[in-house]
Specification:
Helix content is 24%, strand content 22%. With 216 residues, the chain is of the alpha+beta class. It has one domain (39-211). The strands form 3 sheets. Strands 3, 4, 5 and 6 form a 4-stranded antiparallel sheet that branches. The chain has a 4-stranded antiparallel sheet with strand order 7-8-9-10. The longest helix is centred in the C-terminal third of the chain and has 22 residues, at 174-195. It is globular, with a radius of gyration of 17 Å. The protein starts with 38 loop residues before the first strand and ends in a 5-residue tail after the last helix.
């Protein structure tokens, strides 16, 4: 029989909303992002589904430095100095999302860090049978705000410091989060190399793609 999910956990203490953040919304002009297949929660109410969508929008307010050599850009530049914009994770079934509206989030770094975090949440050898919570954080370099991840069994709760205290976290299966994080990374790289041809010749990008291949 399907395993029932753990009882809801008390939310992390929430900070006041970041002053630069507008109302929660999906950034306009978002890049490629494919929604995951619906994954039914293992509950008695089996009609409840969670569908994950990850996307981004590049910012015109924080363009890349002029004369950037995308072929030779090092890891630090790729992760912290280039491709600024906003990102979101959305449960399209429930019409809820976590999004930024600062304009300066390095979107490649976000995709990179998200793939890292998915693996951090899978270190327990018991995998989806592990009842002990596993935690990870995604920090934003120009802000004290964080995105917070907690895994129990095969499910991951995602919340952020700027969320209202009474708002429930987004919840997705770990397998869907891994699949969509990697698809988002590869789709984002495809978009960025369309914009900057030389980026496709950057060895750091080759290494990143090999480290986090797409999964079925």
């Amino acid at each position: 029989p399907p395993r029932a999910p753990p009882p809801p956990q008390a939310p992390h203490p929430a900070r006041a909303p970041h002053p630069a953040r507008g109302p929660g919304r999906r950034p306009v002009g978002a890049g490629r992002a494919r929604a995951a297949e619906p994954c039914p929660l293992p509950q008695a109410h089996d009609t409840i589904t969670y569908v994950l969508d990850i996307g981004y929008a590049l910012s015109n307010r924080f363009p890349d430095p002029p004369q950037t050599d995308y072929r030779r850009a090092d890891v630090h530049a790729l992760r912290h100095d280039l491709f600024c914009g906003d990102v979101y994770l959305a449960d399209t079934k429930a019409d809820r999302e976590l999004s930024t509206a600062w304009g300066w989030v390095p979107v490649l770094d976000f995709a990179w860090a998200l793939c890292d975090i998915v693996e951090q949440l899978d270190r327990d050898p018991r995998g989806s049978r592990a009842s002990r919570p596993q935690h990870a954080e995604l920090d934003f370099t120009e802000s004290t705000d964080r995105m917070l991840f907690e895994r129990r069994f095969g499910w991951v709760d995602i919340e952020a410091d700027w969320m209202p205290r009474d708002e429930e976290p987004l919840t997705f299966s770990h397998s869907a989060l891994r699949r969509e994080a990697r698809d988002f990374l590869h789709d984002l790289i495809a978009d960025l190399t369309d914009l900057h041809d030389d980026l496709a010749e950057n060895p750091a990008i080759w290494t990143l793609q090999a480290r986090f291949p797409r999964v079925g």
